[in-house]
Write a structure and sequence with these properties.
The chain is globular. The chain is of the alpha+beta class and 401 residues long. The chain folds into 3 domains: 2-100, Beta Barrel (OB fold (Dihydrolipoamide Acetyltransferase, E2P)), CATH 2.40.50.100; 103-144, Dihydrolipoamide Transferase (Irregular); 181-399, Chloramphenicol acetyltransferase-like domain (Chloramphenicol Acetyltransferase), CATH 3.30.559. The strands form 5 sheets. Strands 9, 12, 15, 16, 17, 18 and 19 form a 7-stranded mixed beta sheet that branches. A 4-stranded antiparallel beta sheet has the order 1-8-6-3, with no helix packed on it. A hairpin with a 2-residue loop joins strand 18 (347-354) and strand 19 (357-371). The chain contains 11 helices and 19 strands.
Length: 401
């Protein structure tokens, strides 16, 4: 039976996509749930899985083609498959039991296995026929003990791959922007052209939070299975600030102001394809452990390229942490149509005055960029001061004061 392969139905915010690559060629045996084709939109990369076991018959749209929602891009023929791809491919009966039981990983899962150095035979596959999916690899990675050392050492990002420019005295290389990079450029220009953006700054003494983490880090990790980071403190502090200064949790729609009675916090995450902002929905209802778990999961999805459109759509306020890359100070750019974004930076020991004496404290610069059309300077400064005061006295989070 012939089966049509179509582009997934895009949400309203996405108009089209570009075929990145076909993972199989006509005539190849494929198994159900195996990734056949990857389609890039301006937000995420979709994987189109095989709906049945069978053989890929025809590719109608090649890599690089711009396709629309629900567009026909190929056909496959449903047949019983008794060997795993990567083994001698057989359709129908006659495959050996050893071939049928050989571990098989989808292309995206295989890539993640190769990058992480995991043993493919040690991963339990949950896909059809025990095939290994990306989610299985991510679950296996969570069970690997984290390396010892300071948080800065453990979380130090790997250097981004550099383009091969070529040789000669004045080499150049011209490559097209990815859809995500083009969308980022578009939104940055939109933020600068369509908002009266200003930035206010302050500094935070991180010693109280660092002491709190030191006292409770092991117990927290043992109970919840996730490390206690700084981001959850800033998420909770920002929510308290937004409760008191709702203009920063609002947006402009034409001549109307939309005040949001919920707190969907965007957390900027770096991925191999560029910056993405997954959303912590109803973050005010989340415990700090839930925040840390969700951020960890989003970071894994960003590295693996498996963030869904639902993961990154919406948001009422954004937090970004340039400190993980060593930034001491920056002016974060708004994520339209939001009216505020909080920037965290690198913690650095500096001399500060306390009670008439000069002492050394771990200090962090924080920045708030805001849309001055909606948010007054006084409101922005008071919000940032509240965030500072809560971080410097984290017991306020427990007491709600």
């Amino acid at each position: 039976m012939s089966i049509e392969l179509k582009v997934p139905v895009f949400p309203e915010s996405v108009t089209d996509g570009t075929i990145l690559t076909w993972n199989r060629k006509p005539g190849d045996v494929v198994k159900r749930d195996e990734s056949l084709v990857e389609i890039e939109t301006d937000k995420v990369v979709f994987e189109v899985p095989a709906p049945r076991d069978g053989v890929l018959e025809e590719i109608l749209e090649d890599a690089g083609t711009v396709v629309a929602s629900d567009q026909l891009i190929g056909r496959m023929r449903e047949e019983a498959v008794t060997a795993s791809p990567g083994e001698p491919e057989t359709v129908g009966a006659g495959a050996s039991e050893a071939q049928a039981e050989a571990p098989f990983a989808t292309p995206s899962a295989k890539k993640l296995i190769d990058e992480s150095g995991l043993d493919i035979h040690a991963i339990n596959g949950t896909g059809s026929g025990n095939r290994i999916l990306k989610e299985d690899v991510l679950a296996a990675l969570e069970e690997v003990p984290e390396p010892k050392g300071t948080e800065a050492e453990v979380r130090k990002p790997e250097p981004a791959p550099q383009p091969v420019i070529g040789e000669g005295e004045r080499p150049e290389q011209r490559v097209p922007m990815t859809r995500l990079r083009a969308r980022i450029a578009e939104r940055l220009l939109e933020a600068q052209h369509n908002a009266a953006m200003l930035t206010t700054f302050n500094e935070v003494n991180m010693q109280p939070v660092m002491d709190l983490r030191t006292r409770h880090r092991d117990a927290f990790e043992k109970r919840y299975g996730v490390r206690l980071g700084f981001m959850s403190f800033f998420v909770k502090a920002a929510i308290e600030g937004l409760r008191n200064y709702p203009e920063l949790n609002a947006s402009i729609d034409g001549t109307d102001i939309v005040y949001h009675g919920f707190f969907d916090m965007g957390i900027a995450v770096s991925s191999p394809r560029g910056l993405v902002v997954p959303i912590l929905r109803d973050a005010d209802r989340m415990a700090m452990a839930d925040v840390e778990i969700q951020i960890r999961d989003y970071a894994g999805k960003a590295r693996d390229g498996s963030l869904s459109l639902e993961d990154i759509t919406g948001g009422t306020f954004t937090i970004t942490n340039g400190g993980v890359f060593g930034s001491l100070l920056s002016t974060p750019i708004l994520n339209p149509p939001q009216s505020g974004i909080l920037g965290m930076h690198k913690i650095q020991e500096r001399p500060v005055a306390e009670n008439g004496e000069v002492v050394i404290r771990p200090m962090m610069n924080i920045a708030l960029s805001y849309d001055h059309r909606l948010v007054d300077g006084r409101t922005a400064v008071q919000f940032l001061v509240m965030v500072k005061e809560i971080i410097e006295d984290p017991a306020r989070l427990m007491l709600g004061v």
